[in-house]
Structure formats: structure tokens, C-alpha cells
Amino acid sequence: MLADRSIAFKLIFVITLSGTLIFAAVLGYNYYRSRLMLQQELENNARNLALASVYRVDTVLTSVAKVTEGVARSLESGGYTHRQLLSLLRATVRDNREIYGCCAAFEPLTPHARPYGPYFYKQGKTLVYDPEDTFQYLRQDWYQISRELGMAEWTEPYYGDNGANILMATCSVPFYETTNGTRRLKGVVASDVSLEWLTELVASIKVLKTGYAFLLSRNGTIVTHPAKDMIMNETIFSLAEARNDPGLRALGRKMIRGGTDFIPYTDITGRACWLYYAPIPSVGWTLAVVFPEAELLAQVKRLSLTGAAMGMAGILLLTVAVVFIARSITTPLYGLAQATASIAGGDFEVDLPPVRSRDEVGALTTAFQVMKGSLKEYIARLTETTAAKERIESELNIAHDIQMGLLPKNFPPFPERREFDLYALMAPAREVGGDFYDFFLVDDTHLCFVIADVSGKGVPAALFMAMSMTLIKATARQGIAPDEILCRVNGELARDNDSCMFVTTFCGLLDTETGELVYANGGHNPPLHMKRSGGISWLPTSGGVVVGAMEGITYRRERLLLEPDDSLFLYTDGVTEAMDLRDQAFSEERLERTLALLCGSGIRETVTGVMAEVGRFAEGAPQSDDITMMMVLYRG
Fold it and tell me: Is 533 helix (H, G, I), strand (E, B) or coil?
């Protein structure tokens, strides 16, 4: 993992990797742009080269076609004798070096007439006359196509049958005569052209070292090609079939249709190339120029390799510089890290590396020197503070045990008394709290019970709670009414109460024979009366003020007659004000609904059920206040 390596390694790795990626991106973009520009330039050059060659070929073939048309028009306009016709044909072949031979083939006047087609052709520097009186030219393509189409037409290339094995093509033009207003075919003038000059012209097209050009006829036949065995023996479609290449077949169709394009191409040797093709308008043939891709991109690749070598050298120098800088930074940091590890282990006497510069490392070393002294002093103070805190926590634990010992914990508290039952619990928010509850028999027939909540938290609240609990119990044993109990306790607590603390108190006195409850409320939450029939109601508030706030306060005495199996549920505000994670309170309404669901359960089950519901409602939120609950059941 990179996170576990040293700073020097990270610096070297990140900077070198970043430099390499940046260089690779620049080199790749440069290669891409160079290749794109070269491709565009190549396409322009290919177009110029191909079109120039097409123009040269088309010029020659067009001139041949025009001469042939001129002879045909001459035969239409003038009545030539046999001698004059021969002179015309001889002059045509002699004066046009592109024309190999010329023939005037006449349409027979009757089906059984002998063919008449005098023909002159070149043999070296000599003109040879061939009367062609036995030549069945009427079946030849050049004759039939021109006769049927009524226009000038070029044949597909072919090898002549005059023994010279010369690759030729024929341009044929029909000529007519008009007799009595009727236009009738008189014959066809044909000019043979040797394609040796065309082969030499195409072969002279050189592209780089191994590039070449080839010529296709209208049917896709290969007319010229560097591979001699393919000339007139293969078509572009036969090559596509042999190579099972649908792309080449589609390319052949585009070429013979007269299209023009510059596309990627794989030649017969499997080389990746670029191909530009263009039609020769006068004959419908197609000239294609092949550009080897490897040779085209050779200079770009050489330039890219040179740039890559220079970049790698630069990255190597950058790495060396980064290593040097990283070592100059990390060496003092390494020494500082070792010294810091010793300090972390508790050795505050270890020597830090000397400050050799005023850079960040020097400032860090100086800061560590100051920190070492401060840390040494802080740990000494922390040791003392920890000891004091532990002592306080121990004392708080003892105080907690003492406080919890003040509260009755044995339930049922009076197992021999069947006319009533009682259960209570307390959960302080801190080690010690301010809530308390108490119950005791004043005499054989009267049970006194108290629940209270001291203002504040912690030790002060616990001390005030202990004092309040003692005063209430001592006063209640005098056999006086609850309102008088609260009045006297209030006077004692309010006297010299500089801390302004107070306690909310509910005090009740139950006659265990009659079920009469006499009670007084000193600012405490009203208890709930749970009737035997299942109804739940809140005890009416008497408007009493909290106990201990000020002297001279009196409290109202209230009465309630409990039926057998009625019970009272008493609680502190830690129940109804318990908060969940969304800062919503448990509320009195939820408490009433919970008690309704627990109706019919025992008093222990009811109290613990409410505590469990408060815990579920809080959803793990910290307890903010003491929680105290008490339940008194009157059986009668």
C-alpha cells in the first residue's frame, strides 16, 4: 500500500508517475495530431497523383475516341472508293501513334454477303494491311454493342489475336447513311489501342518505396498490377472470394460504379495500406493508388521514438533530482520521527536532531523541542490531575453507594401486610442524583410515602436530597398531615438556603383500613390514579409551590378515597421529559398510553414496563435526568 511507504518514496513515485503520464499524454496527442495531419496531406497528394495519372490516360483515350469518331463522320459524309477508304485508314494509323490499328467494318447489304472490313495495324515501324474478308466481326462485342447502342463505346481489355500477344482495347463508333429520308447503319469504325503504354504509365507511378498503382476495367478485371500473373487473370471480385473478404467485394462494387474515395486497405500481401481510387471517365475504368501505411508513418514513428527517448531521459533526470530533494527533506524528518517515537514511549530526555536550516523542517524541529518541554510539564500535571480525578471518582462511587443505601430496596417492603403493596425504583443520570423516594408506617393503620426531585444535578443535589429526605421522614413520624409536613420541611430548607436549591415533593398518607388518601403536592408532577375498573386519571393539582424556595408557604391538603385494587403511579419528570435522538420528549400522553397497555399487570411489572418503554423511546440517547417511579397498590 502506498500509504505505508515513506515520504521519499511517495514523492519520487508521485512526481515521476505524474511526469510520465503528462509526457505520455503530450507524446500521444502529438503522435495523433501528426498522424491526422499526415493522413490529410496524404489524401491530398493521393488525389493529385491519381487525378494527374487519370488525366493523362483519359487524354490519350479521348483523343483516340475523337479520331475514331472523325473517321466515322467522314465515312458518313463522303462516298469513299475502296482505294480512298484504304488511304483514310492508313493515314489514321500512321498519323496517330496511340492507335495500334484501325478498321472500317461495313454492315452486309444481304444476309449472305461477304464481310467487308479493311484493317490496318502496326507491326514495328511498318503498316500492315489486313483485308479481313473472312473475319466474322459481326459477332464481336465491339461491333454489336456500338450497333445496338448507336454510340461510341470501349471494349474490355483483351489480348490481340494477331500473334503479338499485345494487351489491347478497342474504341468503336457506328456510322450511318441516309437514303430517301431513311437513316440506316452503314458500319462501325474501330480503333485498336495497345495498352503497353498504359501499363508502363501505371507502373511508373511510384509511391514511397513499395507503393504502387493498378488499373481495373469496368467489370473489375485487373488490367495492370505489379504482380504480372494477376493481369487479365483476376478480378477484384475473385480476390474478394478467395480471401473471403466482404469489405473488398463492397470496395470493388464502388470502384466499378465510378466512385472516388480514400480508405484503409489491406493488399494481397496482408499489409496495412491506404487506397485512393478514381475513375477514368472516357472508358469507365478505375485507377487505384496504394500507399503502404508503415512507410507513411515511418517518419512519425521515428519522431515519436526520438521524443520518447528524450522524454525518458528527462524523466530519469527528474527522478534523480526528486530523489536528491526528497532525501534532503526526509533525512532530518526520519531522525525527528525516531526521536518523537522515543518521546511517545515516555523518554523525554532524548535528544532531537540539530536545527541545520531555517526551512519548514527546521521550524518543525524547533517546535518539537518546545513541545517536548511543554509535554513533559503537562504529563507531570496530568499525573497529579488523574490521581485527583480518581480520588474524586472513588468518593463519588462511595457517595452513590451511600445514596442508594438511603433508599428502601426490599420489595415487598411489608410482606405481612396484605391490605396494600408497594414497589419503586430509581435510575440516576450521574453517579449521584437528586431524586428520592421513601415510605414507612406512621402507625399500624397509616402508610406514609414520598417521592421528590431536587433541583440541579450531582453532589449538591445529592446532599440536598439527603437533607430533604431526613427532614421529611423525621417530621412525618410525628403523626401530622402531609400539608403540615411540607410546611415544616419548607421552613427548615428555606432557612439559610444561600444556594437557592429546592425540591418538588409529593407526600401521601394512606389509611390502610378505609382506603382514604390524604396528600399534599409541593410543585411535583401529579400522580396517576389507576382504578380497578381500568380507568386512568390524573390527580388534580393543588397549586403547591416547590419546597425550600422561600419561607412562610402553606400547602393545601387533598383527599382521595381508594377502592380495593386501586393503585397510584408516582414519578419524577425524568420519565415524561426523557428525550430521544430527535430531541422529542416522552410526554405525559405517552406515559398514560403506556400505563393503559400495562393495566392489569402487577405493580413491579408495571413499573419495570414503563422503564423499558422509556428506554426503547430514547433509542440510545444519553439519559439527561434522574428517573424515579413508585407504585402503591391498595387491596383493602
Answer: coil
Burial class of 557 by CB neighbour count within 10 A (0 to 12, 13 to 18, 19+): middle
Residues 399 and 478 in one domain: no
Q: How far apart are the first and last CA of the chain?
A: 78
Does residue 400 sit in the same domain as residue 421? no
| Beta bridge partner(s), residue 517 | 510, 560
Whether 531 and 505 map to the same domain: the answer is yes
Is 305 contained in some domain?
Answer: no
Q: Which CATH number characterizes residue 497's domain?
A: 3.60.40.10
Give pLDDT tens digits for 362-402: 777 777 777 777 777 777 787 788 777 777 676 666 666 66
Residue where a domain terminates, one of 194, 211, 239: 194
Domain assignment of residue 424, yes or no: yes
How does DSSP classify residue 16?
Answer: H
Which stretch of DSSP H or E encloses residue 471? Answer: helix 458-476
204, HSE (Cβ side, Cα atoms, 13 Å): 10
Q: Is residue 518 located within the same domain as residue 449?
A: yes
Contact by Cβ (8 Å): 569, 631: yes
| Side chain identity, residue 283 | V
At 564 the pLDDT is: 94
* Residues 456 and 595 occupy one common structural domain: yes
CA dihedral 164, 168, 173, 174 (to 10 degrees): 50
Long-range contacts of 226-235 (CB under 8 A, 24+ apart): 227/268, 230/268, 231/167, 231/199, 232/157, 232/158, 232/159, 232/167
Range(s) of the domain holding residue 89: 79-194
Q: Do 414 and 452 share a domain, yes or no?
A: yes
Cβ-count burial of 130 within 10 angstroms (0-12 exposed, 13-18 middle, 19+ buried)?
Answer: middle
Smallest CA-to-CA distance from 104 within 123, 124, 131 is with 131
Residue spans of alpha helices (H) in 78-135 = 82-95
Please count the structural domains in the chain: 3
Is 297 a domain residue? no
Residue 624 CA to residue 574 CA, distance in Å, equals 8
d(CA 536, CA 528): 7
Statement to judge: residues 476 and 610 lie in one domain:
yes
Instruction: Give SS3 for 186.
Output: strand
Residues paired with residue 508 on neighbouring β-strands, in sequence order: 449, 519
**What whole-number distance in Å separates Cα of residue 279 and Cα of residue 51?**
9
Note the helical H segments in 141-286.
141-149, 196-203, 236-243, 246-256
Contacts of 26 (CB under 8 A, 6+ apart): none
C-alpha to C-alpha distance for 520 and 449, rounded to whole angstroms: 11
Tell me, yes or no, whether 569 and 446 share the same domain: yes
Torsion of CA 129, 134, 135, 136, to 10 degrees: 160
CB 118 within 8 A of CB 132: yes
> pLDDT under 70 in the chain at which residues?
1-4, 8, 132-135, 161-164, 299-300, 348-349, 355-356, 392, 394-403, 431-432
Q: Which of 406, 426, 448 corresponds to the end of one domain? A: 406
